[in-house]
Amino acid sequence: MWLSWVPDQGLAAIPAIVDALSYYSIDQQHPWRGTVFQELLRLLLQLKPAPTCALAAIIRWCGLNVIDPAHLPPASVRQFAIHCLIRCQVPYHPALERGLLSILTTPNSTDSDQELRQVAAIAIAHLDQELSSETSQTLNSYLYDENPHVRKAVMWSLIRLPQLDSSFIDSLLELAITDPVPLNRFQSLRVLGHFNPTWVLPSLMTIAQQSSPMNSEVQGAVYRAVWLIRQWATDHAGAFQSLLQLSRATAALPSVYPRQSWVELLHSFDQHIIHTSLFAQLMLEDVVRGWATVQHLTPPPQTEANQQGLINQRSHHLRHPPQHENGYWVDWDAFWHWIDEIATWGTSACARMIAAVGRLVMPYWEVEHPGMYSPRIILAVLEDWICAPTAANAEQVQHTAQKLGYGQGTASGAAYAGFALITALIGDDMILRCPPNQSGYDRLHTAIANGLNALQSYEPVWARPNDFELLPSDPIVTNSEVEAVRLVQFALCEELLPWVEQTYDPIQDGHRLCHQWLTLPDDQVDDRITTIFR
To answer: What is the value of pTM for the model shown?
Structure first.
């Protein structure tokens, strides 16, 4: 508790911490000191920006250059030191690579040693230079380590290789089938797909097209497979074709509006019915909505002269959000005033803001829970209301948010991402039922604040290495307060500006374009995909 003040001091706290880490050593007769140094390293992890000036002290506590094992710091302290190395993005050095590799190859003796080996493998993945051939060969042998967490971390570290040779490909394909841990099998497919999605698309399609009775584990595997195909569908023609094939598999294609009937089918609490093609349609719509910006499917309306001034005024407001010049603090009064001004444009503008924030933080939910689709369904029915703002659709939004929106009980980025959608969409004073007033503003503020928390509170993989893991290529990072606010401002401008200026509607055009793909004649699909991805 006596160190709780340190994060508030920012960079001013670093000299005191560095002095303590540099001066003292671990005395085996005073093991309590290990806890103190572990706490000091934990505090370094919390400081922003990353304390690169403390690197010398941090490396000392990693124990990379200690020959006598009796003089090594405790494994728990070394874990935190390696975490600090990762966060500080230490420049590559061959000695650093050798030191991390020696930790990975040290036999297990305790649970802490196993966790240390796992963190060392993750640190190897963060080295900013191509790995040596010796390290590559060692990593290949540890893909079959007896510890499942070490196996998963070693898979993760393979991302640092410039390319996979046949031995790695064979090993990963084998582990995708034989590893007893489901998430490890999934991780091996992700790593292979990172280098070439073509290698794993047949396996993912086999998983996604299962038709046998589903238990919760198999159902999660099916949804994870669809989610993973979606991650590559934007840039890879084969992945997009696979996602489209899954989306078109159902005989009863939904109409553009409304979609409530199949949203209900998608999540059945009573029978746990799985509808892969319907979930794939949500993923497909997420991919093609970006293409609507050049399709302009919605004809721009004829604007009366007396309305052009209002359009120009709102466009100017969106194009000039509050600036946070020094980069370290947010002018919250200006930010919320900017939000409240947009809210005065009507309930549709409020709903679009909630949808924009929800879509911005959706990856923070799905990368941690790729088999759980609740927030995406809530976003889908919210967009249905935006396209057709009826009382029945508003009722459906609230019903869906109440039914699917709970269960995120931890203060993690994923939980905040889920709550960013539901907080404004439940209760008698939900934002879709009443014009903007104080209650509506409060709910809108809460939803946006939850989105900001999701962008700031996400724990990177090395802070929770036993959970579902990100790849270095995943665009999920922990943002500072100012960075999070800027991301939200940009997302709101990107969503609202074309709607305000009446150039196109990102939501309605995205829905229509998705429906075009779903109803495209079979003999035209290949030509259309070739045109898009050429």
So the answer is: 0.80
